[in-house]
Amino acid sequence: MLPSRTTSGPSPRRRLRTVAAAVAAAGAIVAATLTAAPASAVTTGNGSLVYSPAAGTSFNPEGGRAAGTTYAKNIVLKNNGSANGTQLVTYDQLVLVNGVQVYPIYRSTDDGSSWTHVTDVVPSATFPTLTRTSQPFLFEVSQATGGLAAGTILLAGMIMPQDRSSSRLVVYKSTDHGTSWSYLSTIDTGGPATYDPSPTSTTTTVWEPSLAIDGQGGLVAYFSDERQKANGVLQAVSYRRSTDGGATWGAESNVSAPNSQSDRPGMITVTKLPDGRYLATFEVVNRPSQSKNTAPVYFKTSPDGLNWSPTTSIGTPITLANGRGIGSSPYVKWVPTGGPKGMVVVASKWSLDATGTIDGGQNFYVNYNLGDGPWERLPMAVTYDGPDAEGGTFSGFAQSIDYSVDGRTLYQATNVENLTTTYNDIRVGSIPLDAQQYEAEKAARTSDTSLVTDPDASNGSKVGNINLSTSSVTFTVHVPTAGTYTMNVRYDNGTGAASTHNVSVNGGTSSSLSYPATVNWGRYGWAQKTVALNAGTNTIAFTKGTSYAELDAIQLYQPGTALDPQFRITNRNSGKYLEIAGASLADGAGAGQWGDTGNACQIWNVHPVSNGLQLFNVNSGKLLEIPGAQTADGVRAGQWGPTGNATQVWAPATSGGWWTLTNANSGKPLEIAGSSTADGAFAQQRTADGTPTQQWRLLREGIQ
């Protein structure tokens, strides 16, 4: 739910609460041919357009400016055979269709490049008096549950009458890839749809349903519940469970029901983790305080999606190591790529500084250790006016994410302000999840450029003033094999017209790269170019072309070949990085630790194998090993070309965000000798003792 805001952001607004829901439309449009093409990132042009409401057609039932759209929701089919890879999108459409609201269904069969309106799920067909729709959620059933076959598509939402005098959570289903829909059931009902987050509130609304399959194979509907005020609970995030495929729903249980009479968790979504646990995210309205209400995002975990004890707890805030967080309308998804345990990815409307003040919002927050330890940033595919300071109204509100069938591409659906119509469009964009990312602030640059701090920049900084014929920014990149790579460039261009840079690879002839105008300086977009790279080290130089643009980061990937994720490996005891001493390229060179040098010898490709991980040094391309497959304590780790021996494999275990890397041959963990904190101290193996010198953290953001 979108909180009102005071001194923490732009002028206060009431939250957007529209509602009604639906059933299959008569004469549904015939489905387009369903094919699953290879996934590829649609990163340019701020994603692709799904829907744009015409000027003068939108309304806001609460008064004030009409938003056009909110609550964009997308799914990528993964359990539908030949239709896998097909994408569906719906949203809260603040435009009347024949006098009522509907849930529109759009489909893409070309990786999100183009979209076709398939049908509308119409509220009045099932509930004639409930003509308002809101808060849709799309879900593909991943396994058979209670009579629902795997691949069934569900649409949950909240519906209400024109006067908002009641609230009803409903579910519809489709068995033909979203072409037609039928009413399945009502999850729950509540009182008038009135937003009042004050501690004296008497509202009894049920809001914001989402769906998941729990650890026992049941279908779970999570939602926000204001009906527990007699217990001192201003609002809870709760659930009901179905064992008959959503036909009926069991007793209500809570995920988080704080009895502080102030905390107000809401807008819950849940994802299943690869270890069988579940992770839920939700906003907490009235935090950090009732007067500074920026709705920071918290998370909790559960062994099965049902037991969230203690339910009085709101869990743990999602923050970076420096205390920055995110707020409002989160959506969580675990994705299988990006790190040894995949990534937990959270999209949210805005970002927060360490004091909880709204401060931009153009990055996902990601965690490479299933929620343990600090979070990092990942640039969004589509950007929008998060703080509603640039002419938008609730843009980026209640967006969603999903990943491709092969797990390598992340798709983002969100509403983006259209400054011509003054409404929000629905757009879908995507980014590669296995790309190598290089930060502009870490590149070599001429003295006539400048480093600019920006909370919305990847890693918090960008390079500006690339304004003279002598200005240049040169990235040194390392790729495993020679070939053609796709390069995504994150930039901003507030000139109001297209600008260019000249780009050259390894000192060769330059070619032009165009940057369409972004909304302003500080609003980021993506440009794309293919580059031919050699195996190993390459340079990519950007120089001034026409007009002006700033550089934030570049990403390199190959659409046909997955790249291993790259990390720095930091010792818990010393805070220093695991490296190959002296940036040596030789077999047998020793491993140790050193403070940040910016050298590729401190970066590691993390490659999964059947019994653990292989760690390839980015500088040398060689594997971290225990020489000679020795098993004794105190043997120094080093590097060698691939041998196939278990001594070049490391078995990972994690606790509290820290990793233990145990050699698969010796059974002994990697450590810094003598718990030293000095530069140059050796990395060696020793019998496990649980001390911090045997614990490591994998860091990805801003490593190069």
As residue ranges, the low-confidence spans are 1-39
Count of helical stretches? 0
Estimate the helix proportion, in percent.
under 10%
Beta-strand proportion? 35-45%
Structural class: mainly beta
Shape: globular
Mean pLDDT: 92
* CATH architecture term of the largest domain: 6 Propeller
Q: Please give the radius of gyration in angstroms.
A: 26 Å
CATH topology of the largest domain: Neuraminidase
Under CATH at level 1, the class of the largest domain stands as Mainly Beta
Strand arrangement in the largest pleated sheet = 1-6-5-4-3
Largest sheet: 5 strands, antiparallel
In the residues, how many domains can be counted? Answer: 3
- How many individual β-strands? 50
Distance between the ends = 37 Å
Can you tag this structure with a few keywords?
mainly beta; Neuraminidase; Jelly Rolls; disordered N terminus; five-stranded antiparallel beta sheet; 50 strands; Trefoil (Acidic Fibroblast Growth Factor, subunit A); about 700 residues
Characterization of the model:
Residues 1-36 form the signal peptide. Pfam families: BNR_2, CBM_35, RicinB_lectin_2. Keywords: Signal. The chain has 704 residues and is mostly beta strands. The protein folds into three domains: 23-432, 6 Propeller (Neuraminidase); 436-557, Galactose-binding domain-like (Jelly Rolls, Sandwich); 566-699, Trefoil (Acidic Fibroblast Growth Factor, subunit A). Helices cover 0% and strands 41% of the residues. The chain is built from no helices and 50 strands. The protein has a five-stranded antiparallel sheet, with no helix packed on it. It has a five-stranded antiparallel sheet with strand order 29-32-37-34-35, with no helix packed on it. The protein is globular.
